[in-house]
Amino acid sequence: MIRKIFRKLKHIALIPLKILSKPIYATEWYKGFFVGADGETYPDNNWYRKHEERNFDLINLGSSGGKWAFDYSGFNIKAMNWAQQPQTLLEDFNLLRNYHSILRKGGIVLITIMPFTGLNKTTGFRDAMKYLKIDAHEPIQSIEIKKAQLYTQCPILMGKPAIKAIIKHWLGKKSIESIKKKTDLESNPMTQNQLEQDAKRWVEGWKKQFAIGDFEAPLTETNQKGRDYRIKLMRELIDFCTERTYKPVYVIPPVTKHLSQYYTPKFEETYIYGFLKSVDRSILLLDYSKDESLQKDDLYFNSFFLNKKGRKIFTERVLQDLITLN
């Protein structure tokens, strides 16, 4: 009885916040928090209402690198890109657990491996909020899920950013316009100096994010704990695939030489190959990190991510190699 009263009071208290939040729902800023709201990104119930396709050949998982690496449009394959910017390995696994039935027997699961896939990252309510517009049997990210649900209903609680978003919307300005343009770029807009600076920013950002002083040094105690967690999680993900006859495949996408110059042999062993060895699962590895034909600047829109032309070339290469090596 007391719980019922409490829920009712809570509902009443949220009414004014929801009313104040209504104008925010239409802003690009608010929409930008969510993935899959269009019902086209993941095969949830909304997707099934509009599509008759079944028995897909391939899906790929991953974070930013996977999002900007693959584009299956125009190829004779039934495939989906489930990578997001950003996306943790746990979120990858939860997406797979929710939607794997779209795959045919023997379907391929590409696991995008980035420099720090083997380290764990801190997540918060915005990571949980990101997936709240898709229909999932289980939460894709459960960290601070109640706060995420509250802020999804009442974005006015975010304060100044929400107010600014309303003003921009009323003035006709789109906050995510520049992000949308990236999907259409077919050349690299950066100069050589800008590419060098961009690569440096990525490296400095990673060092700050994971509290790394020296890429040549052994893992810190905190990062080793994160590594242990990721090893266990990757094993579970791969075993989930093989138990259901899916074929998991590691894919290491290329980057420009401006960025790869920081990937020393010691760095790669500590953060990439050492992690995969520790997972100790015998699956195919497609490693394009040293393929010079895929490192040309004009295939990227910065020092790290492939542009539209680059994605097409890379996707075709991966699909060909899967046929050859499988």
Structural class: alpha/beta
How many domains, as an integer? 2
Rg: 21 Å
How many alpha or pi helices? 14
The biggest beta sheet reads: 5 strands, parallel
DSSP E strands, number:
5
CATH architecture of the largest domain: 3-Layer(aba) Sandwich
Order of SSEs: HHHEHEHEHHHHHHEHHEH
The first-level CATH class of the largest domain is given as: Alpha Beta
Summarize the amount of helix as a percent range.
Answer: 40-55%
Strand content: 5-15%
Overall pLDDT, averaged? 92
The CATH topology of the largest domain, please?
Answer: Rossmann fold
| Global morphology | globular
Q: Please identify which CATH superfamily of the largest domain we are dealing with.
A: SGNH hydrolase
Low-confidence stretches: none
